[in-house]
Amino acid sequence: MTQLEPHIFEFPKPLQLEGGAVLPKWQVAFHTFGSLNDTLDNVIWVCHALTANSDVYDWWPGMVGPGCLMDTDKYFIICANIPGSCYGTTGPLSIDSQTRKPYLHDFPLITVRDIVQVLMELRKFLGIKKIHLGIGGSLGGQQILEWAIQEPDLFRYIAPVATNAKASAWGIAFNEAQRMALQSDETFTDGQVDGGSKGIRAARAMALLSYRNRNTYQKTQTDTDEEKLDDFKASSYQQYQGQKLDRRFNAFSYFSLSKTFDSHNVGRNRGGLEQALGKIKAKTIAVGISSDLLFPPEEQKLIADLVQDGTFYEIDSFYGHDGFLIEVESLTKILKPIIND
């Protein structure tokens, strides 16, 4: 059964960020499911995507629980909310200890390497020395790759899903368009704590166009009324999805984490992607989604080609990038026989 509230751990030392800034005080929120075995080697660590939280039950139904891929009768599952988010870990809404006010626009750039630094500190605090499987999709997959490079002996398996080793110009362009939408909302630019409602709704509507694809919309959002002149189903869907995210997320965190996406490059200061990915020792199962416009399958195939022990799998899905969340049965069929060997 999922926990109602995450665990909160406050770290005793400042966090030095890759970009040069320092967070003097910071905390991380995390959930755990299942139990550690006697040999402490049954850990599955899940890294979440952009707007998710640390409660995997909440956003990846069918993946966690008895008999599922992340079988709680067999494995100890951990997921930590990432810095920059708004679900318990330090982010733009957190209080700056120097100003005694929320950071908001002053929250520093958080890179994927900074996120992994937080995850490594949490791992040490929990006393975990081996991870059976590290898994994540999208931004979560970026974290898994970065972590497996920094601690190559930690993981037995990693499963980066619908992700890449370096942010693409295409992805950065989508993110910038969404940030422009946020910045057009005066309540956001003025720094109102609850500001950015209209901006985040527009940004989410833009994002959906990259998360799905034309065929998805054509099949699910086409009106049957051939005489209609306005109020189309696709329009209502965009409005609904924007409102839905606005109710559960925060515009300042959305802006911050989109910047995190853009800065991702495992090859930075490591001699490029080939040298960086070559450091990964874990058996790597890189999974792509056939219709993914944002992270096309060739990006996952590149990962499998450049790591020491990599295999590429492609899921034939109608749902685009969101297929990594929806195609649970297909993902389970790929991963379960491998991780249960």
Integer count of domains = 2
Shape: globular
Rounded radius of gyration (Å): 20 Å
CATH-defined superfamily of the largest domain: Alpha/Beta hydrolase fold, catalytic domain
Could you say what the CATH topology of the largest domain is called?
Answer: Rossmann fold
- The CATH architecture category of the largest domain equals 3-Layer(aba) Sandwich
Give the averaged pLDDT, no decimals: 96
| Order of the strands making up the biggest sheet | 1-4-6-5-7-8-9-10
Order of helices and strands: EEEEEHEHEHEHHHHHHHEHEHH
What does it look like?
The chain is an alpha/beta fold and 341 residues long. It folds into 2 domains: 7-167 and 265-339, Alpha/Beta hydrolase fold, catalytic domain (Rossmann fold), CATH 3.40.50.1820; 171-260, Rna Polymerase Sigma Factor, Chain: A (Orthogonal Bundle), CATH 1.10.1740.110. The chain has helices spanning 56-59, 112-126, 139-150, 169-183, 186-189, 197-211, 214-220, 233-248, 251-262, 273-277, 297-306, 323-326, 328-339, and strands spanning 7-11, 15-16, 22-23, 26-33, 43-47, 76-80, 131-137, 155-161, 283-289, 310-315. The strands form 2 sheets. An 8-stranded mixed beta sheet has the order 1-4-6-5-7-8-9-10, sandwiched between helices. A two-stranded antiparallel sheet has the order 2-3. The chain starts with 6 loop residues before the first strand and ends with a helix. The mean pLDDT is 96.
